[in-house]
Automatic annotation (TrEMBL):
PANTHER family: P-LOOP CONTAINING NUCLEOSIDE TRIPHOSPHATE HYDROLASE PROTEIN (PTHR36978:SF4), P-LOOP CONTAINING NUCLEOTIDE TRIPHOSPHATE HYDROLASE (PTHR36978). It comes from Actinoallomurus iriomotensis. The lineage of its organism: Bacteria, Bacillati, Actinomycetota, Actinomycetes, Streptosporangiales. This is Sulfotransferase family protein. Gene3D superfamilies: P-loop containing nucleotide triphosphate hydrolases (3.40.50.300). Pfam families: Sulfotransfer_4. InterPro entries: P-loop_NTPase (IPR027417), Sulfotransfer_4 (IPR040632).
Amino acid sequence: MGRTGTTSLKAALERLGFGPCLHAEDIFRRPTLIRPLLGAIESGSADWDEVLAGYQSFVGGPTSTRWREIAEYYPEAKVIHTVRDPDRWLGSMRTTLFKRRERFHSLPGRAAIALSSVLGTDLAPMVRLIQMTLESQALPSPADRTPERAVEVFRAHTDEVAATIPADRLLIFDVRAGWEPLCAFLGVPVPEEPFPRRNDSQEYAKSGVGAATPLLLRRTR
């Protein structure tokens, strides 16, 4: 799920030599990824070596929506499932991802997406890709996001991952635990510097939505 430390995990994996690591933020910098990823995630069947070429790891959305297919495609790969306190997760989601995604449903947002669709620019497919996340699929509307329902979904997803991925391939990881469990799982030395802390709610709020603006005018293939 989003807001479980995936940006911090990306930084940690890259520090440990498992990079480049694909994260949603990379797609804004490399819009050529938008359409291949969108096609792969919508179909569920893809040559993941081709789609993910150049990356050694990937965390969070949008690839996490196809975690089963990707885990089967790479049967020797290790799987890290990030977790946090469910109530704190929901609070963070409400002030960040849920709020930002609802802007796409506003009148200006819908107008920009419609214009992008007509012009064939990157914004419309990017929005579709952004909306393809685990939490968006499980909690599609504000009516579905009651605390009881959201926490139930969050915990059920962890249970599903644990029941699906063999224990020797899986680390259920809270980034607050730091380097030790992650490095032990990956079989690498523990760095001397502190574990990276990235993209907390305050930092996310300051980031704005400007990164998506150029996609209204840009067209990549």
